[in-house]
Design brief:
By secondary structure, the chain is α/β, with parallel strands linked by helices. Helix content is 40%, strand content 14%. It binds aspartic acid.
Amino acid sequence: MTFRQRHLLGIEPLAPAEIVTLLDLAERYVELNRRTVKRADALEGLTQVNMFFEPSTRTQASFELAGKRLGADVMNMAVAQSSVTKGETLIDTALTLNAMRPDLLVVRHPESGAVSLLASKVDCAVVNAGDGRHEHPTQALLDALTIRRAKGRLQRLTIAICGDIAHSRVARSNLILLGKMENRIRLVGPATLMPADGFGCEVFEDMAAGLEGADVVMMLRLQKERMDGGFIPSAREYFHRWGLDAEKLARAKPDAIVMHPGPMNRGVEIDGTIADDIRRSVIQDQVEMGVAVRMAALDLLARNLRAERGARATEEGIRV
Ligand code: ASP
């Protein structure tokens, strides 16, 4: 198995073979999660702490389930009630936590780069559950698994990522991953929500043109919490030009799949009937794959952690 990472901070450092290793392992966890008894022991005896400094529904719930199904002791830190609100710095919080000897730390933070800073201060494996507009690696991995299962491959696909690209960590992690796997990526959205360099992808302001012949249509939420001013004229106007409806979707391939990381704003970036159309929408599959991918990520990091600690203990002559 190829997976050499100590932390999972982003897609950027991953080699294509590491991505494939993680997705293949996640496939096995999809099977486990469909059984009545969903239990494995990959994290037995380990402590996992989830620290979410930003709201989350799917991500936090699925990391919690993932850890529990693999036998870890899982603690969700209630950040809103913690010393963070009393002015404690992120680093002090991290050092306090570190002294409690967790093995896996899952962190979401509004500042880009905060999770990797934290990883440099602690002894455990750290998973980035979303940092600012930077990266959200497990989202891109679960999207990749969803695409691979729906399309039978993860190469040579035309993928349109649509909406608020500039503020989206989901877009960034996805375009890095899908780029590494040699897909054709198009970014579609208003110029005000597009990064200046278009991340080196093909950029379309006209949605119909951007969706023409696409295999995958990935919609994104407007990240209002990361906007400091008006980026769109109005939600109604936005839906008219960049919201996914049946007419715009008709430009994509007839078997194109529709994705959305959630939370979804129906009638803003996506028409509710498209989101609910199980012939096109794989949004619920994404949620299911999320648990399996997070199990695979935690499992691989735990293996590396055990190997590293085992090696260290052997060097010190301690029997483990
Ligand atoms: N849930 C995703 C994230 O945390 C997408 C979103 O919030 O729009 O980035």
